[in-house]
UniProtKB/TrEMBL annotation, chain A:
This is DASH complex subunit DAD4. Belongs to the DASH complex DAD4 family. The keyword Cell division applies. One of its GO terms (biological process) is attachment of spindle microtubules to kinetochore. Keywords: Cell cycle, Cell division, Centromere, Chromosome, Cytoplasm, Cytoskeleton, Kinetochore, Microtubule, Mitosis, Nucleus. It is found in: Chromosome, Centromere, Kinetochore; Cytoplasm, Cytoskeleton, Spindle; Nucleus. It comes from the Eukaryota.
UniProtKB/TrEMBL annotation, chain B:
One of its GO terms (biological process) is cell division. The keyword Magnesium does not apply. The keyword Cytoplasm applies. It comes from Neolentinus lepideus HHB14362 ss-1. Its main location: nucleus. Keywords: Cell cycle, Cell division, Centromere, Chromosome, Cytoplasm, Cytoskeleton, Kinetochore, Microtubule, Mitosis, Nucleus. Residues 575-587 have a biased composition (Acidic residues). InterPro entries: DASH_Ask1. Residues 1-12, 158-185, 340-353, 468-491 have a biased composition (Polar residues). This is DASH complex subunit ASK1. It comes from the Eukaryota.
Length: 73, 673
């Protein structure tokens, strides 16, 4: 025998089902996004390395230049 | 993480203006209370019957569920429609940056001869270092870092370059990082971090925040930090101030090193201590060094940074000190021409030996203080083959190889232009390129020759027929096995005389086409609009269909061949097909061999061999006599003349053709130039 809550419960069940489905899809999208970001991150780390290298090189060169200049002068 | 990055580099990066609506903060969460009596449901009519209230509540629940569902759908929609593409576009857009960074990292790697571990290599490095033995050190840091490394290890890693000659532990064996941290450096680093509240780079901040953030920082930053930490504790020797990582350099005291110099020579930070240790083996604390100092390429897990303890030689013994300077004042700059070993002899030495005796025992005793006897040092070596190969040399080799393969391939199939240059060739030069030639062939082949060309066609065919004789082996084969008719080849004034079989294949069909219309420069101009790239990149077929509607009365190969005499210039530009070129043949008959720069082959079919009597320009054109086999000329010469002096030649030939491009000022063969 159906109880009074049935109509509510039924409707709510349907809604919950939809919610769960959406949540799943969202999860997948977020996972994809994560992968994307991860790749970007990897690339960025590389870029950061390169930038650091260049910076250090620049600093060193500057220092050495000054040192050399000082020595010559 | 993004916020960290921004904080660190705010001076370099301008944040984009944030003109989005501010996000409303979430409404306060509803905390379910334990006491049912205390639950307040807004809107509930407490006076109604219980069932009604229940219904009402149920409805509220339903509505809330609906909202939740709607929000989830919205989220999903937003994510997939805006976020994901945005990220992907970003990734695609920054691809060039990545390539550049990769290039420069390689550049620096090769310059310093060190392999820079990148993010991905950490995980693999971890696994290897963990297996190695550890020095007796507090394991607390070890466990701490290990736990961190596990998360890093989850990341699937594809190490860029693995240098088998260097153990991963060397480079990635950073104290405090995933590397097994049984080094005093790690210890001191932790200490220093605790003292100094972390360093500047965001990575160091991140390292406290999340395990994976540790891997974000570049290895150089780690090295840097490490060195700084070491400098806090004791004076690290640091790399020598001068340029080359010379083997001989004795890293004596460098107390007044600046921070910048500490970092100089990214590789030297790793290799110098090793050298340092080896050279100082005589002076160092035996227990420290000997136990943990395997020479050269350390198969063991010990980190070179381990040995950065107090400098074993006091400052005063600095052999590089210029005379009469205080050791503290030494600025680290050394004249490499005078090394301690060479100068010590002249200066006389307190070795306790008399003059002649000292000379005899030069090698052994005349060491400046603080320098151990010369020993053969096994320096950490990287793959030797790479030493001599600078990227530029390798690039040059590659280019050479490409050229060679191009030449070979062109002989084989000439369907694609394997040019090293990715730039589209201007129309004036397109005839010299194989692809352009091929591309033009397609559409033209379908054309029907105008009536006027019949005679020339016949002559052409005859010529070709005759030419095959001259061609000999080459011609017969080509005629028999032409791939297709390249009608547009007529436009190509350039061709090589040598009857290369392969090359002739495609072009040779021309004589058979019933369209001996002279090649019209229309081809070039028309095709200009279509993007030169098509010439270079598209296959013949694709271009064929593409071009068909546009090219109408292009010249036909025969004409081009006929151009054995290289009268091609004028004909190329001719708008209208006209036979007149037969007569108008310039007096300047360019040598039939019109070499291609890139080697090829176009028309070998040899127009050159019109036969002594028949030419498209009329019979007995070649009154010069049996010049059937065209004289071979310098390959580039023709092209040179073509491009450089074509205008003059044309003028001389009296055949300044009308440029197909109709327009003011376009009158002569300037297009060719």
């Amino acid at each position: 025998t159906t109880t009074m809550e049935n109509p509510h419960a039924e409707r709510q069940a349907v809604l919950i089902e939809r919610i769960a489905k959406n949540a799943d899809k969202c999860t997948e999208v977020i996972l994809e996004l994560n992968h994307c970001i991860e790749e970007i991150l990897r690339a960025n780390a590389y870029v950061k390395t390169a930038a650091d290298l260049v910076t250090k090189y620049h600093k060193n060169v500057q220092y050495n230049l000054e040192a050399t200049k000082g020595k010559d002068a | 993480m993004p916020s960290n990055i921004n904080n660190d580099q705010s001076q370099y990066v301008r944040l984009p203006t944030d003109d989005r609506k501010p996000i409303k903060p979430n409404p306060p969460r509803w905390e379910p209370s334990d006491d049912p009596d205390a639950i307040i449901v807004p809107g509930l009519d407490t006076n109604a019957s219980v069932n009604d209230q229940i219904d009402y509540i149920e409805q509220l629940v339903t509505v809330k569920l609906q909202n939740v569902d709607e929000n989830m759908a919205k989220i999903h929609h937003l994510l997939s429609s805006r976020m994901l593409p945005a990220f992907k576009n970003y990734a695609v857009g920054t691809e060039p940056v990545r390539e550049a960074a990769k290039f420069w990292v390689n550049f620096f790697e090769k310059a310093a001869r060190v392999r820079l571990p990148i993010y991905d290599e950490l995980s693999t490095a971890q696994e290897q270092t963990i297996q190695h033995d550890q020095e007796t050190e507090p394991t607390e840091t070890e466990t701490e870092t290990e736990s961190h490394t596990h998360s890093e290890g989850d990341v699937t890693a594809q190490p860029d370059s693995f240098n088998p000659d260097r153990t991963p532990s060397e480079s990635s064996f950073m104290p405090g990082q995933g590397a097994v941290s049984s080094t005093p450096a790690a210890f001191s680093r932790h200490r220093s971090e605790q003292e100094h509240e972390s360093q500047d780079s965001f990575a160091s901040q991140a390292s406290e925040d999340a395990p994976w953030a540790r891997s974000l920082e570049s290895p150089l930053v780690r090295l840097d930090r490490e060195l700084r930490s070491l400098s806090v504790d004791d004076v690290p020797p640091g790399p020598p101030p001068y340029g080359e990582p010379s083997v001989y350099l004795e890293p004596s005291d460098r107390n007044d090193h600046s921070q910048a110099r500490l970092d100089k020579g990214k590789s030297r930070e790793v290799s110098e201590p090793l050298l340092y240790n080896v050279l100082r083996s005589g002076l160092r604390n035996k227990n420290e060094v000997n136990s943990a100092n395997p020479p050269s390429a350390r198969a063991g897990p010990t980190s070179p940074l381990k040995f950065r303890r107090k400098p074993p030689t006091p400052k005063a013994f600095n052999p590089f000190l210029p005379p009469q300077t205080k050791p503290e004042q030494w600025n680290g700059i050394v004249d490499l021409k005078k090394t301690p070993l060479t100068t010590s002899r002249h200066q006389g030495y307190s070795s306790g030996l008399s003059g002649p005796k000292a000379l005899e025992e030069d090698d052994e005793d005349m060491y400046p203080p603080g320098m151990s006897p010369l020993t053969t040092i096994q320096l950490p070596t990287i793959a030797r083959p790479t030493l001599g190969r600078s990227p530029s040399k390798e690039a040059a080799k590659k280019i050479g190889r490409d050229l060679i393969s191009d030449a070979q391939r062109r002989g084989g199939k000439g369907t694609t232009e394997s040019s090293l240059s990715s730039m589209p060739t201007p129309p004036s030069l397109q005839r010299y390129t194989r692809d352009g030639y091929e591309a033009r062939r397609g559409p033209v082949s379908s054309e029907v020759s105008s009536s006027g060309m019949d005679t020339s066609l016949e002559s052409l065919m005859r010529r070709v027929g005759l030419s095959t004789d001259y061609q000999g082996q080459g011609g017969s084969t080509t005629i028999s096995a032409p791939s297709y008719v390249p009608p547009s080849t007529a436009s190509r004034p350039v061709f090589s005389v040598q009857p290369l079989h392969e090359e002739e294949e495609q072009y040779y069909e021309e004589p058979h086409t019933p369209e001996p219309a002279p090649y019209v420069q229309d081809d070039d101009t028309v095709m200009q609009g279509q993007a030169y790239q098509e010439d270079l990149d598209d296959s013949f077929d694709s271009f064929d269909s593409f071009d068909e509607p546009e090219i109408n009365d292009t010249a036909h190969p025969s004409a081009a061949f006929l151009m054995a005499s290289s009268q091609r210039g004028p004909h190329d530009l001719d708008d209208s097909f006209d036979d007149s070129f037969d007569d108008d043949d310039g007096d300047e008959r360019m040598p039939p061999v019109i070499p291609f720069d890139d080697g090829d082959d176009w028309f070998d079919d040899s127009l050159d061999d019109d036969g002594p009597t028949e030419t498209i320009f009329g019979a007995h054109r070649y009154q010069g006599g049996g010049q059937a086999p065209m004289q071979l000329g310098m390959r580039g010469e023709q092209l040179l003349e073509d491009t450089v002096g074509i205008g003059d030649q044309l003028a001389r030939a009296g055949r300044l053709p009308r440029s197909p491009t109709v327009g003011p000022g376009v009158e002569d063969a300037s297009m060719l130039a």
